[in-house]
Amino acid sequence: MVVLASPPAADHIPLLRSPDPGDYFSGMPVIDLCSPGAPRAIADACERFGFFKLVNHGVATDAMDRLESEAVTFFSQPQADKDRSGPAYPFGYGSKRIGLNGDMGWLEYLLLAVDDSASLSGAVPSGSAFRRALNEYIGAVRKVAVRVMEAMAEGLGIAPLDALSKMVTAAGSDQVFRVNHYPPCAALQGLGCSATGFGEHTDPQLVSVLRSNGTSGLQIALQDGGQWVSVPSDRDALFVNVGDSLQVLTNGRFKSVKHRVVANSLKSRVSLIYFGGPPLTQRIAPLPQLLGEGEQSLYTEFTWSEYKKAAYKSRLGDNRLAQFQK
Known about the structure:
Layout: E1 2-3, E2 12-13, E3 15-17, E4 30-32, H1 38-48, E5 51-55, H2 61-75, H3 79-83, E6 92-98, E7 103-114, E8 120-121, H4 129-156, H5 166-169, E9 175-182, E10 193-201, E11 207-212, E12 218-221, E13 228-230, E14 238-242, H6 244-249, E15 259-262, E16 269-276, E17 283-284, E18 302-303, H7 304-313
Domain Fe2OG dioxygenase: 172-278
Protein name: gibberellin 2beta-dioxygenase
Pfam families: 2OG-FeII_Oxy (PF03171), DIOX_N (PF14226)
């Protein structure tokens, strides 16, 4: 932990070794969502890495660019104006502090609730260009999440096709949208280290769908040995990762990927993340269709509400599933 010299001077941000060119993930699965082989390829990527890059996804470039532009405009406001959209307890504007349990990162963010119709609630003014851009993008990316989860079911060979996706389309589904801004951290330029933008963690939901600008910074931990590798940026693609709840539903067959963000010393990073979660009362347990003869569940059953509460009480890097493992 260090105290960064640039403002705000009192924030303690963990440091990481700056990524090297050789750290990039050369074996990342790249999947065309419209390809006939997409279901099997998605299932394979979720089993091997818990993560993949999605192309030909159908979200209009204009919609992605509009939201990025509006996000940049929002984060460019004076601090006092941004603070009026916070604090993030849990929804709204936040800066540096991630959650309530001491985690810190070199970022500012908006955390937003999404209702059943894939529209926003709270934090962003109704009728604003920013809100319109958010609603347009979230509506489109939610459809992608549903298509991806249907492809997961097909790739796993389970029926019905909406066995997984119905959890995010059901009334009361718990969907969240996050807009992250990682400012340049020029104070560390040339020192061989970088500030932690967002510390290592897994996502508790079912799936997360991310889009970022052209600035790198996202890293994932490989399943075999935990080596950290950097994900090459691609502002036209979407990146999908498996969450803890989906790992349980597949009885560990799909892996919830550990990931983090390393702040860039010279360039801003803006990322847009849709988190698809089930209704609070949804029971999370391995799907019977995926349990072979005599195979036992690796986890004790829980509701999404129970797991969500446990997640809010934890630190980012905690293994939240450990208390539910048999």
